[in-house]
Every structure is written in C-alpha cells, then in structure tokens.
Design a protein that fits this description.
This protein has three domains: about 80 residues, 2-Layer Sandwich (Uridine Diphospho-n-acetylenolpyruvylglucosamine Reductase, domain 2), CATH 3.30.43; about 130 residues, Uridine Diphospho-n-acetylenolpyruvylglucosamine Reductase, domain 3; about 60 residues, UDP-N-acetylenolpyruvoylglucosamine reductase, C-terminal domain (Uridine Diphospho-n-acetylenolpyruvylglucosamine Reductase, domain 1, Alpha-Beta Complex). About 25% of the residues lie in helices and about 25% in strands. The strands form six sheets. A five-stranded antiparallel sheet has the order 6-7-13-11-12. It binds flavin-adenine dinucleotide (FAD). The site of flavin-adenine dinucleotide has 32 residues, from strand 3, helix 3, strand 9 and strand 13.
Length: about 300
C-alpha cells in the first residue's frame, strides 16, 4: 500500500505496474521525478481492461521514447502508460502502407524501410522516439513530416474504445495534432512509394550523415527546444539574443546548435528556467515570442507548478 489512495486499488492486469518509478531514465534529457504508477500493458486487451476498471479520477499520460519531454522534478500524477510489450512493436506491410505498433522506435524501422524500399519514409528513421510520439507531435525533418505520410491512426480513448482515424481527422499542423493526453495511439499506418531499396538506404544514410555533422551527438537533449516561428529560424533568434551562452545550473544550449538544449545536470527546474530566460531574452531582443517544441509535464518538487 502507498499514501496515494487513488492508486491503491488498481485493477488486476497481465502487464506490469511500477510504483513511484523515477522517470529520469525514460527521457532523453535524463531528468524527472517519479510517476505515481507506471503501467506496462501486456497487450491491447490488457490496456482496455485497465482503462475500463481503473478509478476514473486517475489522470493518464502516455510515455513514448521520452525524446521530446521535460518531466519536472516532482514527477507525474496518476498513471503513466508505456507501450513496451512486443505486441505494440509489430509491423506489417499491406499494399502501399506500412502498419507499425505505436511502441516501435523509429530507429528500429530503418531496416524494414530500407530493405523493402519504402520510399518517402526515410526521414522518420532519423527521428528519436516512437511512431506513437511522432504522430502525436507531427514530427518531421528533411522536408517531410508525419502529416505527409500518415494514412491511418488506430487510437484507444480513456474509456477503452478503439477507433481508426484517417489523416484528415488527425488535425495535423506544424509539430501538432489533435490527439490529447487521453488518446492512446496504438498503431500507425504510413503510406509509402515503392522504390529501389538501395536508393532508400542511401537517403537514410545521407540523413544520418547530415545529423552527425550538423547536430550535437551523444548529449542529453530533446532535440529542437523551440519551434521555428513562421519564416524564421529559432536558433538564429536565440543567438542574436545571447541565449546561446546562457547557463542555468548545469543546463545550457549546445555550442554546435543553439536550439538544442544540453543538459549536464540532474535538475528539470534548471532546464525550465533556462528555457524561460531564453524566451524572455528573445522577446526583448526581437519582439518574437518563441514557442517551446519540448513538452514540459509534471509537478515541481515543492508542488508549485504542474
Ligand atoms: C537528438 C534529437 C533529435 C530530434 N530531432 C527531431 C526532428 O528532426 N524532428 C522532430 O519533429 N523531432 C525531433 N526530435 C524530438 C522528438 O524525437 C520527437 O518529437 C518525437 O516524435 C517524440 O516521440 P517520443 O516517442 O519520444 O514521444 P515522447 O517524448 O515520449 O512524448 C511526446 C508526446 O507524445 C505523446 N505520446 C507518445 N507516445 C504516444 C502514444 N502512443 N499515444 C499518444 N500519445 C503519445 C506523449 O504523451 C507526449 O505528449 C528530436 C529529439 C532528439 C532527442
């Protein structure tokens, strides 16, 4: 038993619960306090039964690869769902659509996209995280994004009902979709063009090489911290405002790419403070209000913001 009454009576499941699990190890920025409870469903039916039987007041949060998240130091309220079981990482090709479980990492799709010559999906192989997370945030790079390739998204809502949405129903725009915290993306259908596998493999390698030479490697980061305002580059605005040399505790911006945050410490609060300072400096210098691309979730250590 624990001191959170709403998580004392969780339904019996076939998957696994972890109570007060620190989220630091599940995020690329490598910070974040504990989840009240983490649930790793065994499969779709297990997830549905959990959702139908749990106390309706328990908030939900779906964690993908944690590559676009800053979890605050006080951790997350409620249940954090992680689609880790093999049944959430299956894929199949039907005609010109690649269906993949939302728990598939984009990196793991590299082999199947290259070997089968699935043209148009090359960009995805270089984006950290899962296909579920990529759909939720309409991830993109190298001139493409999920909005351009998604054919269908299978999603479970908080009441356990499953529906399949077509691209036009997903509400995609720049790094956004209509999916909310109570929508659990289960499977993603991605439309491709049949191409020569060698040509596809070459594009994947060129993209990887571009990242190796233009973006910081091996640091604790969440990629682009701020969205590019219409017609402008966030990194340029940050540099002009002196944000590239700002430091908060052990959080700073990467010397190689000043829109990439570089965390060398253990404090989500420092990272958030740095983001706030950069937004203020850019606003003062250029009048532009930067919008964060990184999603901040959770409660502060002393139960301040959440
Ligand atoms: C080095 C680096 C480079 C990057 N480069 C790019 C880039 O080029 N382009 C780009 O767009 N992004 C980039 N990113 C950011 C990040 O990789 C993407 O935003 C990615 O799509 C996030 O996916 P994730 O699975 O890690 O999601 P998470 O970070 O775990 O979660 C992000 C959001 O998605 C939701 N979510 C995750 N899974 C599901 C699901 N199954 N159902 C419903 N909601 C879900 C979460 O609740 C959260 O709201 C980069 C990040 C890093 C660290």
């Amino acid at each position: 038993m624990n001191d959170k009454p709403h998580i004392n009576n969780l339904p019996k499941v076939r998957g696994e619960y972890k109570f007060f699990e620190p989220l630091k190890g599940y995020t690329w920025l490598n910070v974040g306090g504990p989840a009240d409870v983490m649930f790793f469903p065994a499969d779709e039916d297990d997830l549905r039964d959990f959702l139908r039987q749990k106390d309706k007041n328990i908030p939900l949060f779906v964690l993908g690869g944690g590559s676009n998240l800053l979890v605050r130091d006080g951790g997350l309220n409620g249940a954090v769902i992680k689609l880790k079981a093999p049944s959430f990482a299956r894929y199949r090709i039907e005609n010109d659509i690649l269906y993949c479980g939302a728990g598939c990492t984009n990196f793991s799709l590299k082999k199947i996209i290259a070997e089968n010559g699935l043209g148009g999906l090359e960009f995805l192989c270089s984006i950290p995280g899962t296909t579920g997370g990529a759909v939720r945030g309409n991830a993109g790079c190298f001139g493409s994004d999920m909005a351009k390739v998604v054919a269908a998204v299978k999603v479970m809502s908080a009441d356990g009902k499953v529906r399949t949405l077509k691209n036009a129903e997903c509400g995609f725009s720049y790094r956004r979709s209509n999916f909310g915290d109570n929508d659990i993306i289960l499977e993603v259908g991605l439309r491709f063009e049949h191409k020569d596998p060698a040509a596809v493999a070459e594009i994947i390698e060129q993209n990887a090489e571009y990242r190796r030479t233009h973006q910081p490697q091996g640091i604790k980061t969440a990629g682009s911290t701020f969205k590019n305002p219409e017609g402008m580059a966030a990194w340029k605005l940050i540099k002009e405002a002196g944000g590239d040399t700002m430091v908060c505790g052990k959080a700073k911006m990467s010397a190689q790419h000043c829109n990439f945050l570089h965390n060398e410490g253990n404090s989500a609060a420092d990272i958030e403070k740095l983001c706030d300072s950069i937004v203020a400096a850019v606003k003062q210098k250029s009048g532009v209000t930067l919008e964060r691309e990184v999603k901040i979730v959770g409660r502060e250590q002393n139960n301040g913001r959440s």
